[in-house]
Specification:
The protein has 12 helices and no strands. It is mainly α and 257 residues long. The protein has one domain. Helix 8 runs antiparallel to helix 9. It is globular and about 65 Å long.
């Protein structure tokens, strides 16, 4: 096996001028009739439905009711309820989405008007989701009973960002014939250096330790770049990507931000 480099992907910087959230904020006054706003918001919702679903379940709803409410919440978002409240001074997409969700559930509890499954909008296929392999970033068993709903929301959000970054990296490696390298090294991308056994990775890849160190370093750099891109997509250009990445990492590590 050769030690050719991990695909570098696109270069990135501290600013992402075309993030989906910045598009939404800049065009908010145009409302739901603006295709760019609708497309950007729709993609963000599709990417981050898991934190919504977990939050609703934690509020005591059954799985089937949580499915209904998740779909209905996204429909109200796309219909413009959230856009009408979008304000660059009110924070990032994650924070505004959580506040909107809390208000939505309070209204749903009072009005009991959740749409039934099978309606005209479906964001995710629940049957396909239930058939997915378990996440490598599973939630601690005590979380659903002892953690606040807001903490679960942030943990699911962080896990989604991480898993989307890993999925993109896996796809890039596979496209360059390096899926085997990803499969071996991916478990070490988030590990502390003291927890990584280079000799063991070398044995599994059939490479000398020097090339393995280089491959791991390059893959870590690319993973961090993809992570920053995923985080940036939910921020306005004026917000700090590094600050949000640090926060999400602290959530994953179960440490105070």
């Amino acid at each position: 096996m050769t030690s050719e480099a991990v695909p570098a992907g696109n270069r990135f910087s501290d600013r992402f001028p075309a993030t989906r959230w910045s598009v939404i904020l800049s065009c908010a006054d145009a409302g739901r009739g603006n295709p760019a706003v609708h497309d950007a918001l729709s993609q963000l919702c599709q990417n981050y439905w898991r934190p919504i679903f977990a939050f609703i379940c934690h509020r005591g709803y059954s799985v089937s009711d949580a499915q209904d409410l998740t779909q209905d919440f996204f429909l109200t978002v796309l219909e413009g309820a959230l856009l009408g409240r979008a304000d660059p001074e009110r924070g990032r997409f994650r924070s505004l989405l959580l506040k909107a969700l809390t208000n939505f559930l309070n209204d749903a509890k009072d009005k009991k008007t959740a749409r039934k499954r099978g309606g005209h909008l479906r964001f995710v296929s629940w049957d396909e989701w239930m058939a997915e392999a378990p996440s490598r970033l599973s939630m601690p068993e005590q979380a659903m009973t002892s953690w606040p709903a807001e903490r679960i929301f942030d943990l699911r959000w962080a896990a989604t960002v991480v898993e989307r970054s890993l999925r993109r990296l896996a796809e890039e490696c596979e496209a360059h014939g390096r899926r085997g390298v990803f499969d071996v090294l991916s478990g070490s991308l988030m590990a502390e250096r003291t927890e990584v056994s280079i000799p063991e990775l070398s044995r599994r890849l059939g490479l000398a330790e020097g090339p393995v160190k280089r491959l791991l370093h390059e893959m870590r750099q690319r993973y961090r770049g993809l992570l920053r891109e995923e985080v940036a997509d939910t921020l306005d250009e004026s917000e700090s990507i590094d600050e949000e990445v640090r926060y999400l990492c602290s959530v994953m590590a179960d440490q105070p931000a």
